Amino acid sequence: MNTSRILRRTVLAATLGALCLPAMADLADIKAAGKIRIAIDLSAPFYGYVDDKVNPAGSDVEAAQLLAKDLGVQLEIVNSTNSARIPNLLSNKADLIISSLSITPERQKAVDFSVPYGAIQAAVGAPKSLKITGIDDLAGKTIAVTRGGPQDKIVTERAPQAKVVRFDDEAASITAAASGQTDIVAITPPIIAAIAKRAPARDFEVKFILQSYQLAVAMRKNQPELMNWVNGWVKTNLSNGKLNAIHLKHAGVPIPKEIVDGAK
Fold first, then answer.
1. Is residue 9 predicted with pLDDT exceeding 60?
2. What is the second-level CATH architecture of the domain 3-117+216-262?
């Protein structure tokens, strides 16, 4: 099922279920509850993962921890697979999404986005021995993607002759590539580097960049107080360098300058 269809069904389900749900929490309700529930995919290194001490870690996790601290509330992480991030938000299981979620027109129909706090690249990775230089080279080849992610949409639309194998989370996509179940994966450059580290014999590398996307915090629609606070928080922590320090720690590269400048 493609991303567009998933989102249409998600929006429809949320609309039909709206009468059964409690009132959606805005900023005052979150403060009164003393906690904020943030959806994060904990199977997407370097953004979110479980470390060797079985604690949530990653750039999204640290950003969420910083947000909760600045808001003065406790953080509750809602562990969400890639495809469950928006459904968990719309069904009121989470108050926000901070989970390498890129801004797309289709997603904007379902949720509201803050100003961008980062950027993510969609890339194609494969063993060095495999000759792939562009999207046309994917024709007839099997390529692993994470279901519902931006790479899924790009490959499905731009490489219609490729055989797309969809996995429910990025951990499964990594395992497929590292184990040799598939030789090609569409994912982010840091995760391609993680595949190379996990399975050195596979000799994985980035073959080419599919597209770059802006990342933002997502929330349910019509929450003006929460939106204003989150926008202010993003701008403040891009300006003071805290979000960049988190990104640099986990990704090894800074947040793109255009993202920082755009939040001023």
1. no
2. 3-Layer(aba) Sandwich (3.40)
